[in-house]
Amino acid sequence: MAAVLEMLSYPFMVRALIGGILISLCASLLGVSLVLKRYSMIGDGLSHVSFGALSIALAIGWSPLKLSIPVVVLAAFFLLRITENGKVKSDAAIAMISASALAVGIVVTSLTTGMTTDVSSYMFGSILAMSTADVKMAAVLSVVVLGLFVFCYNKIFAVTFDENFAKATGVSVSSYNVLIAVLTAVTIVLGMRMIGAMLISSLIIFPALTSMRVFKSFKGVVWSSGILSVICFCIGMTASYLCSTPAGASVVLVNLAAFLLFTLFTIIRKNGRR
């Protein structure tokens, strides 16, 4: 308990906790829809796009967020459009954009001197990277995401499970898909500063997959994912502080442990019914 109080006495840790909790919540809620629609790897692809944009921004002396957010949003929009047309499968499109953006980032980094430390912090995350402005942006983002799920829950449900039915009931499927993709893009850009580009997609995938091991209803999975993501993040950050391990990797390992525990619980419950 004393160690936790000591951790909370540092302003940068408080910022990291508040910002991380908000980002984890957004990522987990959006992740439920993305995983069920089989778009789960879009997080990994967009994180690589963000890395490429950040590398270019740092090389030319621009603010990383001002360049990376519009670039990642455009990439998300482009991914949706080419997959909706049916000419390129979603996994192939994500792999193509991901590899290309990562290659651009690596080349720009290699050609620019003195950038290695800055890029490394974005690749693997740094709790020191979370500023007050980032926390404010995360707060606004969380309000938008929570508002979307509270006020448009039925439409999100319909778009997630059956787009044809949603269209028949008058729901603008393309608009909701674009909105989810844009919110995911912003979540990734904000989250990768602390979690890292290599690990940010895990915040989207793990809570949803873990919750699906136990809960079978959409509402149950949404509630469980949100709560689980916040708990795992807090435990991961505390473990990172106490053990001096990277914050992003610690959070991911706690999410992995939760997935394994939920899987074990499911196996035990099934065997108990026999």
Question: What percentage of residues falls in helices of 4 or more residues?
Answer: over 70%
| CATH secondary-structure class | Mainly Alpha
CATH superfamily grouping: ABC transporter involved in vitamin B12 uptake, BtuC
Q: Tell me the overall shape.
A: globular
Could you name the CATH topology?
ABC transporter involved in vitamin B12 uptake, BtuC
* Rounded mean pLDDT score: 84
Q: What would you report as the Rg, rounded to the nearest angstrom?
A: 19 Å
Reading the helices and strands in chain order gives HHHHHHHHHHHHH
Please work out how many helical segments DSSP would assign: 13
> How many strand elements?
0
What are the segments in which pLDDT stays under 50 over at least 5 consecutive residues?
none
The CATH architecture is: Orthogonal Bundle
Strand content: under 5%
Can you lay out the helices and strands and say which pair or pack?
Blueprint: H1 2-8, H2 11-36, H3 42-60, H4 64-84, H5 90-111, H6 116-124, H7 132-151, H8 153-161, H9 163-168, H10 173-191, H11 201-212, H12 218-243, H13 247-273
Helix pairs in contact: 2-7, 2-10, 2-11, 2-12, 3-4, 3-5, 3-6, 3-10, 3-11, 4-5, 4-10, 7-10, 11-12, 11-13, 12-13
